[in-house]
Amino acid sequence: MKTDDLIAMLASDPAPVARGAPSKRLALGLLAGAVLAALAMQLTLGVRPDIAQAILQPGFWGKLIFPALLAGAGFVTLALLARPGMRARAGEVAMLLLVAGLWAMAVSAWAGAAPPDRAAMVWGTTWRACTLNIVLLSVPVFAATVLALRQLAPTRLAEAGACAGALSGAAGAAIYAFHCPETGLPFMAVWYVAAIALVAGLGAVLGRRLLRW
Q1: Residue 90 has what pLDDT?
Q2: Distance between CA atoms of 27 and 168, rounded to whole angstroms?
Q3: Residue 153 — pLDDT band, cuts 50, 70, 90?
Q4: Cα(49)–Cα(136) distance, rounded to whole angstroms?
Q5: pLDDT value at position 117?
Q6: Residue 112, Cβ neighbours under 10 Å: how many?
Q7: Contact between residue 84 and residue 22 where contact means Cβ atoms under 8 Å apart
Q8: Fewest beta carbons less than 10 Å away: which of 45, 53, 91, 159?
Q9: pLDDT on residue 183
Q10: CA pair distance 138, 31, nearest whole angstrom
Q11: Percent residues over pLDDT 90 in the chain
């Protein structure tokens, strides 16, 4: 949104913005992007063939719950950053605490394993593809989220872009979990978090340009 357009809109329509309007717009963007990412995952990678058995294992739900919680925290944080001059320190801290909690559990699991098993817990069998696949699946989510943000009025552009990237990376990770055969917490702490951090970093860089008024 251009600054002149915002001024003209405020001057011509002084009615208050409906409560929750930014959150609703972002939610629609996130939903559209997630649907596109899920379709892309199904068409290119496919759901793991043993999904009926996988959903009975705690490891599968760990891969799903962590990015889902991170995406939820990212959404709340981004809904604040979408408004002029708003800060969202609490939300950003919550996202960092989620990552720190995952790493604490991963280190504990790694330390408690037999030494010959530790390398496999980190590398798994799909580490080469995992991070790239999550990043690619995050693209439609990021694009749709940025389109929604451009209709709002964020002023901390790099911060909002990074948050949009983290949210998109987390959503991509949650979708990828339905394909990923890995179950180890150390694997997720390294490769899932690396993908989310990469998209967040790209979002911070792109946000300065894409979200400029």
Answers
A1: 92
A2: 12
A3: confident
A4: 21
A5: 94
A6: 8
A7: no
A8: 53
A9: 87
A10: 12
A11: 76
Longest dimension (CA), the chain: 69
Contacts of 200 (CB under 8 A, 6+ apart): 162, 163, 165, 166, 169
* Cα gap 181→49, rounded to integer Å: 10
Average pLDDT over residues 8-22: 58
**Residue bearing tokens 């037999």:** 114
For 132-144, how does the pLDDT look when each residue is reduced to its tens digit (9 = 90+)?
Answer: 999 999 999 999 9
Q: Which two tokens stand for residue 186?
A: 């150390």
- Residues written for the chain: 213
Whole-angstrom Cα distance, residue 146 to residue 138?
Answer: 12
Residues with Cβ within 8 Å of 118's Cβ and at least 6 positions away in sequence, in order, are: 110, 186
Amino acid letter for position 103: W
CB-based contact 169:46 (threshold 8 Å)? no
Report the C-alpha gap between 149 and 129 in whole angstroms.
30
Nearest to 190 by CA among 96, 106, 129, 112: 106
Q: How confident is the model at residue 213 (pLDDT cuts 50, 70, 90)?
A: confident
| Predicted structure pTM score | 0.89
- Burial class of residue 120 in the structure, from the number of CB atoms within 10 Å of its CB (0-12 exposed, 13-18 middle, 19+ buried): middle
- Would you say the C-alpha torsion 8, 9, 13, 14 has a positive or negative sign? negative
Name the DSSP letter for residue 27: H
